[in-house]
């Protein structure tokens, strides 16, 4: 494929993904069709099918694109030295502000939480791929940090690193959602609450 044609195809693909994200959030994944996506872009349905063979394939591509962006955001604030719980907690507070400060990031967050029926048969394979994805850095970062802190004697032996990681990611997820849903008045409120929550977790597991 000639370079110019390839570049145009990539631009069209990007436009389709952006249109799909907007419609998935507005109408719901289940109620959005390729016809809707094409009409929003003033394209034919066949043109959308040329880039994506199915709606599930489009969703996978959209998830992949957003996870790569999320990964870059995480990498930008990831501690460069040995991971410790306080450092990872600080990183996740910064990342929460990145998510709520970006319209596309908020739209994707809402899509994943509200507009996809993950229990449906067609979403089974997509969900499994998502759960296996190695780029979900936060849980892995917290788990590694807790294990490092145990070895260094900063955290009590016997603390379950998996449980701590799950709790910390759940705190992040819940507060980001609360901010996007406007249950919290500002990003500052969200960040301060998340910071204090992580301080509480740290106080409950560290060596006194």
In short:
By secondary structure, this protein is mainly alpha-helical.
Structural account:
The chain is an all-alpha fold and 208 residues long. The chain is built from ten helices and no strands. It has helices at 3-27, 34-41, 45-51, 55-77, 85-100, 103-114, 124-132, 137-151, 161-180, 187-205. Helix 5 (85-100) packs parallel to helix 9.
Keywords:
208 residues; mainly alpha; elongated; 74% helix; 10 helices
Topology:
Blueprint: H1 3-27, H2 34-41, H3 45-51, H4 55-77, H5 85-100, H6 103-114, H7 124-132, H8 137-151, H9 161-180, H10 187-205
Helix pairs in contact: 1-2, 1-4, 1-6, 2-3, 5-8, 5-9, 5-10, 8-9, 9-10
Largest sheet: none
Percent strand: under 5%
The total count of helices amounts to 10
The arrangement of helices and strands along the chain is HHHHHHHHHH
The helix fraction, in percent, is over 70%
What is the CA-based Rg, rounded?
A: 20 Å
Using the alpha-carbon principal axes, give the shape.
elongated
Average per-residue pLDDT, rounded, comes to: 85
Structural class: mainly alpha
Strand count = 0
Terminal residue distance: 63 Å
Detail the poorly predicted runs: none
Instruction: Work out the oligomeric state of the chains in this entry.
Output: single chain
């Amino acid at each position: 494929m000639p370079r110019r044609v390839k570049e145009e195809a990539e631009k069209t693909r990007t436009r389709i993904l952006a249109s799909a994200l907007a419609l998935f959030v507005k109408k719901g994944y289940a109620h959005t069709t390729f016809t809707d996506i094409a009409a929003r872009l003033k394209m034919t349905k066949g043109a959308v099918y040329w880039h994506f063979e199915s709606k599930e394939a489009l969703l996978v591509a959209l998830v992949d694109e957003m996870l790569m962006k999320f990964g870059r955001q995480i990498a930008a604030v990831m501690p460069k030295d040995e991971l410790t719980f306080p450092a990872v907690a600080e990183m996740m507070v910064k990342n929460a502000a990145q998510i709520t400060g970006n319209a596309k990031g908020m739209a994707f967050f809402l899509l994943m939480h509200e507009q996809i029926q993950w229990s449906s048969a067609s979403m089974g394979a997509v969900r499994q791929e998502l759960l296996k994805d190695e780029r979900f850095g936060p849980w892995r970062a917290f788990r590694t940090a807790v294990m490092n802190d145990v070895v260094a004697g900063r955290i009590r032996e016997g603390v379950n690193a998996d449980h701590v990681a799950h709790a910390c990611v759940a705190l992040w997820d819940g507060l980001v959602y609360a901010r996007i849903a406007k249950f919290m008045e500002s990003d500052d409120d969200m960040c301060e609450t998340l910071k204090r929550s992580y301080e509480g977790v740290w106080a409950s597991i560290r060596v006194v």
